[in-house]
Amino acid sequence: MELQLKGKKAFVSGSTQGIGFSIAKVLHEEGADVIINGRTEKKVQNSVQKLSKLKGGTVTGIAADFSEQKQVTSIIDQFAELDILINNVGFFEPKAFPHISDQDWFEIFEVNVLSGIRLSRHYLPKMLDNGWGRIIFISSESAINIPEEMIHYGMTKTAQLAVSRGLAELTKGSNVTVNSVLPGPTRSEGIEDFLTNLAEEENKAKNEIEQEFFNDVRPTSLIQRFAEVNEVANLVAFLSSPLSSAINGTSLRADGGVVKSIL
Asked: Is residue 190 very low, low, confident or very high in pLDDT (cuts 50, 70, 90)?
C-alpha cells in the first residue's frame, strides 16, 4: 500500500532504538524526510547512518535530552515546521509506590508527558495554518492497565491519552489529526536484555522466561508473545499518512489483546 508520505517531514522523538527507530525506518522507507532524535550525538549519528543506507527520503538527526526544556527549544529552533510529529520519547522505572519520591514523579512527567506537550504547542498551530498535519503520541497499554509496580509510569501514559484527545478537539474541520497508539509488550532492545539477564539469573532458556511472563504477568495477551517493533511501527506509519484522514481523537491499540475491553 502506498502511504503517500513522499516529501512529508517527520520528527520522531526517542528514535535511536526500539519502537522509535522502527517508526523512523518505516516512515523513511515510505519516502518521508525523517529527523532522528536521541540523547547523545553518537547514537543519533549511528541511527542516521543506518537509515541512510536504505532507499527512502532524507535522514537528518538532532541530539536532545527531553528532561531539559532548553534542549527541546533547540529542536524547535532548528526545525520550524513539521508535517508529522511522533511523540515517542519516554522511560519506565519499576519502583514500589512508597519509594516513588516527588522528584521521581516530576522527572517522569517531564520526559514522558511535557515533551509531547512542548513540541505539540509549537507544531500544532503551524500544521493548522498549513492545512495538514499528523501528531501521534506513543502511549502504552499501561495507560489502561496501570502497573502496580510503576504507578508513576502508568500515570504518564494515561496523561498522554488526555492530552492527545484534547489537542484533537482543536483540529475540528481541518486536515490535521491527533491520535495515540498503545503498544503492549514489545520486543525492543530493552526487553531482549531483560529476558537474557533473567534467563541467566534463573538458569532457564530465554523462551521459557518469555512464556512465564505471559503466563504470570500478562495472561490476558491474546497473541501470547511480544509484538515486534515493526508491528507497532506499521500502525503508526498508517496513522501518519493521508490514508488515515478519518481517524482523529482516538487511541488505537497494538497491544496483542492485553487490554480486556471492547472500548
From this structure: confident
153 is known as an active-site residue: yes
For the stretch 72-123, pLDDT in tens is 999 999 999 999 999 999 999 999 999 999 999 999 999 999 999 999 999 9
Q: Which three cell numbers stand for residue 188?
A: 525492543
Active-site annotation holder among 21, 153, 213, 214: 153
Taken in order 78, 71, 8, 43, is the CA torsion positive or negative?
A: positive
DSSP 107-154: HHHIIIIIHHHHHHHHHHHHHHHHT-EEEEEE--GGGTS--TT-HHHH
Please state, in angstroms and as integers, the Cα–Cα distance from residue 253 to each residue in 59, 146, 242, 257, following that order: 28, 15, 20, 8
Q: From CA 262, how far away is CA 131, in angstroms rounded?
A: 33
Q: Is 232 exposed, middle or buried (0-12, 13-18, 19+ CB in 10 A)?
A: buried
